[in-house]
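Design job #97: recover the sequence.
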């Protein structure tokens, strides 16, 4: 994909321009093989102008989700809280006014992530939110490889689907097909945990050569549309 190619180019440019040696290791994939599931709650949905108010990151080692050592931080935003975002995550300005500044949180978060690939549902959004702070503070963008759980799910359920098949890549559809427990949604820790559980199951299924069965009515719809 063109976007991935451009990201690799930007990554190499950022590596060469890197001035702070603390972050050099982020440009090389971590030798542990771990990944980090990340989710952010924000003041709104504009990655250029809205702020992070809560971030959770959970390391995954093989099939183990390391919740006991997760990183969680409430962040005091500069941007105004938008009504549409409050309706989603139920966090008000008063709930985050005692949070720490992103200047305090960011280096801790980057150290926690290190060179590990980052995992999530709609991970490009979370990465874009973090990228803005990283670029402003340190002059580079997150170099970490990104793993989108809905892409893994698509490959296992719809990779060989006939034209016209009804495709549902929603968070709820993935959780339902994988038999995951229902956690309160739009909570950064719960969403990061659910994405980690999705990642573990989907990668295990992929390694075993398993697929996710499609419903017959989707196939029937494909036959009619074809």
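Job complete. Output follows.
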């Amino acid at each position: 994909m063109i976007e991935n190619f451009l990201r690799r180019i930007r990554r190499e440019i950022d590596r060469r321009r890197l001035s702070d040696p603390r972050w050099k290791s982020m440009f090389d994939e971590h030798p542990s093989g771990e990944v980090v599931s990340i989710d952010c709650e924000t003041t709104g949905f504009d990655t250029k102008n809205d702020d992070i108010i809560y971030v959770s990151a959970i390391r995954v080692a093989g099939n183990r989700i390391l919740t006991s050592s997760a990183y969680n931080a409430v962040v005091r935003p500069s941007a105004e809280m938008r009504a549409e975002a409050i309706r989603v995550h139920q966090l008000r300005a008063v709930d985050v006014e005692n949070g720490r500044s992103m200047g305090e949180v960011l280096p801790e978060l980057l150290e926690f992530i290190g060179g590990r690939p980052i995992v999530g549902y709609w991970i490009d959004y979370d990465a874009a939110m973090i990228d803005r702070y990283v670029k402003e503070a340190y002059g580079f963008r997150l170099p970490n490889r990104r793993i989108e759980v809905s892409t893994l799910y698509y490959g296992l359920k719809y990779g060989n689907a006939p034209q016209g098949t009804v495709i549902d890549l929603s968070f709820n559809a993935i959780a339902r097909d994988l038999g995951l427990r229902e956690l309160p949604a739009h909570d950064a820790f719960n969403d990061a945990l659910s994405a980690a559980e999705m990642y573990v199951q989907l990668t295990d299924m992929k390694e075993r050569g398993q697929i996710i069965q499609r419903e017959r009515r989707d196939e029937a719809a494909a036959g009619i549309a074809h």
